[in-house]
Amino acid sequence: MKRSLPLKRSSAHFVGAALLLAVILLGYSLLPGSHTLSSAPTVLSGSAPRIQATQHYISRTSLTTHTTTTFDSSGGDLIVVCASSHSGVFMAPSDNFNNTWISAVGPTSTKIGFDLRTQVWYAKNPRVGPSHTFTVNLSTTQPLVISLLVVNGSNVSDPIDAVSRIGDDAGSQTSHVVSPSINTTSGNDLLIGFAKSATGQVWTSGADYKAQGTASSSYLGAETGLAETPGKYQVTFDLNSPGSWQAVALAVKPASAHRSLNSNSEK
């Protein structure tokens, strides 16, 4: 007659099998999700960058020089700015702390629909502090809107992981804004999205994104999110009324970023 295993030993075998199954399932759950194009998972390390301070500016008056009111950039190690105007104008950024401003993308004008012209810059490892102001000088007199984000916890030597081109509605005037895609290459990136509308809007941020209300105005919206794993991302907004728009997405690398070998930016 076949002998039965003692109950204690059977229980031990059952617990061992259950633990093995749990480990296997956990491994699959840690793989990048459906947004991911990279085949090489990245080990996450450190915290994601976060928003330290914000500012916005809007002027319907045509000027050649536009300057924000003061903001406190203390604690920031990266400043990202989006500005938008019209009529093929050239925009030159500066600030009262004499930081160096690098163009991330643009200037880009719409080709169909209402005339919009947008550009994004950043200042890495900037001089920061109270009573900070940001200025844009224009080649001709035009109105201007500005959205500014002060970031803490970025990779100060090489902060921008990916940036999209500046997309638009292509004449559709749809009220659902979707930026071109970016492919991130490091984990725990801070995602930043900007959208400019031809008409005043109430901005609704996309799922998993947080509206940056104090960096936004009725004509230029800002939002942020987290890209925990390398992959393909877009930013989205919903408008309360149809109109021409432009949108752009970028990703900020954390201070301790591990790079994936199989990802790159879509520009």
Description:
This protein has 267 residues and is mostly beta strands. It has one domain (50-252). The chain has 1 helix and 17 strands. The strands form 4 sheets. Strands 1, 2, 3, 4, 5 and 6 form a 6-stranded antiparallel β-sheet that branches. Strands 7, 8, 11, 13, 14 and 17 form a 6-stranded antiparallel β-sheet that branches. A 3-stranded antiparallel β-sheet has the order 9-16-12, with no helix packed on it. Strand 4 and strand 5 form a beta hairpin. The longest helix has 23 residues, at 7-29. It is globular. The protein starts with 6 loop residues before the first helix and ends in a 15-residue tail after the last strand. Residues 1-45 and 260-267 have low confidence and may be disordered.
What tags apply to this protein structure?
single chain; 267 residues; mainly beta; 1 helix; disordered N terminus
SSE blueprint:
Elements: H1 7-29, E1 50-67, E2 78-85, E3 91-95, E4 102-109, E5 117-124, E6 134-152, E7 160-163, E8 167-168, E9 176-178, E10 182-183, E11 189-197, E12 204-205, E13 210-211, E14 220-227, E15 232-233, E16 236-238, E17 245-252
Antiparallel strand pairs: 1-6, 2-5, 2-6, 3-6, 4-5, 7-17, 8-17, 9-16, 10-15, 11-14, 11-17, 12-16, 13-14
